[in-house]
From TrEMBL:
It comes from Rufibacter immobilis. One of its GO terms (cellular component) is plasma membrane. NCBIfam families: efflux_Bcr_CflA (TIGR00710), PRK11102.1 (NF008314). InterPro entries: Efflux_drug-R_Bcr/CmlA, MFS, MFS_dom, MFS_trans_sf. Residues 9-394 form the Major facilitator superfamily (MFS) profile domain. This is Bcr/CflA family drug resistance efflux transporter. It is found in: Cell membrane. Its main location: membrane. GO terms for molecular function: sodium:proton antiporter activity; xenobiotic transmembrane transporter activity. It comes from the Bacteria. It is a multi-pass membrane protein.
Length: 406
């Protein structure tokens, strides 16, 4: 493909990947306003985030088989249509329970973009290029937290929190038009792929039996759940504990997201000299050390607002080393089942993210300790799984290097 085609495809796939980050980050500064308007608590509003993550986790299992059976675009159109309608429903919510329900439906629609985006990377680029492409997508995703909370904070202050969801619907409609006219089809429909429950479960089991997929999905999913603890807990930590405004919180979130932008670019350089599994190990060790310092410092009262921002920044630097390489390694063995593999991997990541988000809400104690404690626990578990499973994944990769793809 030409450089222009490459750029357009990356831009559209990146835009698809930003639907969920925007949906998560853009309304964060509005938590206090939502709680006040709906006559509820911030911890109850946090459950709307948990509901969104549960919806993403469940919805991806639905789209995987559909993408393999009907091709990439038609399920994508349907999902984004549901997302747009549900976003308007969120804006019109008159109770916290209605907001939670609409957020779940919004996620079920929006996750089509996540699954289709990853499957299209596997369709449109050679296996040797996928880690680099995922790094570019991580870069596009990382830019959205710089924009979304800042814009969301100003919009909430100027027009109310409802306006955020109207804007999300409009953005997604714009992306849908781009997909219609400029995104290649990727893998076409496969009539041999059955949608009967038994056949679908069989496809999922085929994917799950692959050691390389299992190990790197577990490692990447659990380690990559750490930012969800930060996303869930940071509105309360900064706006309630440190008493910053919606606008200032948006700028803090934007500054911290710079860490997510820099590390994927460093990953590009590292991939020239190191294997993806080596980079994953490097990132996890770094995050574990920083996480230990972060938890110790919060518990001992070492950090004020600025100190906490600094250690959070250092911790988030590691995410751009783990996530793209784990995604690339988990999908590498698959061609025919790329949709199902992408769905299973994404479902696991978001399911763990939902648990992590819920844990921060349940452990809420008016300090930053639940947030940083859960973040650090994710990386510790991730690195333990890496060391326990990396040998079997490497052995499988060596044996399968001459075997046909699934």
């Amino acid at each position: 493909m030409t450089r222009k085609q490459y750029f357009i495809i990356i831009l559209i796939l990146g835009s698809l990947s930003t639907i969920s980050p925007f949906s998560i980050d853009m309304y964060l500064p509005g938590f206090p306003a939502i709680a006040e308007d709906l006559n509820t608590t911030i911890s109850k509003v946090q459950l709307s985030l948990t509901a969104y993550l549960i919806g993403i986790s469940a919805g991806q299992l639905l789209y995987g088989p559909l993408l393999d059976r009907f091709g990439r675009k038609y399920p994508l159109y349907a999902g984004l249509g549901v997302y747009i309608v549900a976003s308007i429903g969120c804006a019109l919510a008159h109770s916290s329970d209605m907001l939670i329900a609409m957020r779940f439906l919004q996620a079920v629609g929006g996750c089509a973009g996540m699954v289709a985006g990853q499957a299209l990377v596997r369709d449109l680029f050679p296996v040797t290029e996928t880690a680099k492409v995922f790094s570019w997508l991580i870069l596009v995703i990382a830019v959205s937290p710089m924009i979304a909370p800042t814009v969301g904070g100003y919009m909430t202050a100027a027009f109310g929190w409802h306006s955020v969801f109207y804007v999300l619907a409009a953005i997604t409609l714009f992306i849908l038009v781009g997909i219609l006219f400029a995104l290649p089809q990727g893998k076409g429909p496969d009539p041999t792929m059955s949608l009967k429950p038994r056949a679908v479960l069989g496809n999922f089991l085929t994917v799950l039996r692959n050691p390389q997929f299992l190990v790197y999905t577990l490692v990447g999913g659990i380690a990559s759940a750490a930012p969800f603890a930060y996303i869930s807990g940071s509105p309360d930590v900064f706006m309630n504990i440190y008493k910053v405004s919606e606008q200032e919180y948006g700028w803090i979130f934007a500054v911290l997201s710079i860490a997510m932008i820099g590390s994927p670019q460093f990953n590009h350089l590292l991939l020239k000299k190191l294997r993806s599994d080596q980079i994953i190990k490097m990132g996890l060790v770094f995050q574990t050390v920083v996480g230990a310092l972060m938890v110790t410092g919060v518990y001992a009262g070492w950090y004020g607002k600025t100190g906490l921002i600094v250690v959070l920044f250092l911790f988030l630097l590691g995410q751009g080393l783990t996530a793209p390489n784990a995604s690339a390694l988990s999908l590498a063995p698959f061609s025919k089942f790329a949709g199902s593999a992408s769905a299973l991997g994404g479902s696991f990541r978001m399911g763990i993210g939902a648990l992590v988000s819920g844990a921060v809400s349940v452990l809420h104690n008016n300090t930053a300790l639940p947030m940083v404690g859960v973040m650090t626990s994710c990386t510790i578990i991730g690195i333990l799984i890496y060391f326990m499973g990396q040998r079997s994944a490497t052995n499988y990769r060596n044996l399968a290097s001459t075997a046909p793809e699934l």
